[in-house]
Amino acid sequence: MKKYIYKIFNSLEKLESNIAFYPSIISLFGLLFAFLMIYLESIGISKYLVKHYPVLVVNNTETARNLLTTFIAGLISIMVFSFSLVMILLNQASSNFSPRVLPGLISNRRHQIILGTYNAALLYCIFTLVSITPNGDKYQMPGFSVLLSIVFMTLSLGAFIYFIHSISQEIQVNTIMDKIFIKSKLRLEKLVEAEKHIDAGFEDTSDWKNIMANSTGYMQDVSLKALADLAESHDLMIEVVPIKGAYILKGIPVIKYKGEASDHMEDNEDLESKLLDSITFSNSELIEDNYVLAFKQITEIAVKAMSPGINDPGTCINAIDYLTELFALRMTKKDHSYYFNDDEKALIHINTVSFEELLYNVMVALRTYCKHDVIVVQKLFVMFQYLLQQNNVLDENYKEVIIKEIVNLKKDALDNYNNDRDIELIKSYITKLQNINPSEYKF
């Protein structure tokens, strides 16, 4: 039962990120409200209001028809313009920054709600116009419903003004990077807080039983609670083989487990099926599920900014600032992740991207495409200086990893420059890094 609840919850989360989710829900409410008003008009709400509150009723048929027709045409124009702006935003973000940022922009809840408001108001106006009686009798005409359509049109205009303001902010690269940073920071902080700093002596898993993937896609998430329940109930030890966010091909091992096999083949197959069901595959990646994606996105934005067609070192420097803080936070997390039961016993080993691999993947891209700009190289040395000075590092080996990348950056930088002033600047930063702890770090 828990498995199905989790799958439903996960499916709803993926559906929520779809650009049509909230517009569809809000449009449905607009349609239902239109039918509700038609019912209220049929039982005489406008007739009652004409007697007691005539100011709340539009009781002229031609005026009502003209208003509703104008509103419908105006709302269609606003919707077309708004959707066009969204498409322009997505196209520009993909061209100038990175295609990976598109899921985050598409899932912007505010824009979805605004587009849904337009559609709900449009549907309401259409059905209200249809409900006007042809004889023009003032008691049969939905006068109060027409007044509400004026209110909804006013709200739509206000939403349109806010949409123009919001879309102009969303298209800025600093806003995009800031949102990526905030999401990844929250995810990392959650992982660090939940991580038990216990040395788990997990045994070698090379001879454990393998469960193969039965589909392809990105490994979006793992239900650790469901896996832990299975591990405890069947006395198992489990390893999740792929790294979260990796693209899984059908037929490769995704789970290894160790435990007593049942005498019945069907029971073993049922257990393996339950273990495999705890992994969710998807064709998209979200930062909320995988913080490593944020490093990829910010790095790609930095590299794209340094391309000859854009040539924007300022954006690249801002991206390095965000990466610096994320790397500092990552240094407070272990390379190996485990899931413990209440007795502090490690039941599940979760493979994660190591700090060394993460730093190398980021730096190899930056060194390759940004080494020609001495200002960007200077900023990278400042990043390394900040990381070496961190005092809350969980693993001292992280600093050795940083030193390796400093050596790589030094070599690429000195090989790339012929100007004496540039070479002198690079050597001065190497000296600063050496002076942090000269007895320990040798460059």
UniProtKB/TrEMBL annotation:
Q: Does the keyword Transmembrane helix apply?
A: yes
Give the record's keywords alphabetically. Answer: Membrane, Transmembrane, Transmembrane helix
Pfam families given in the database record: DUF2254 (PF10011)
Regions that span the bilayer: 20-40, 67-90, 111-132, 144-164
Name under which the protein is recorded? Putative membrane protein
Q: Report the source organism.
A: Winogradskyella eximia
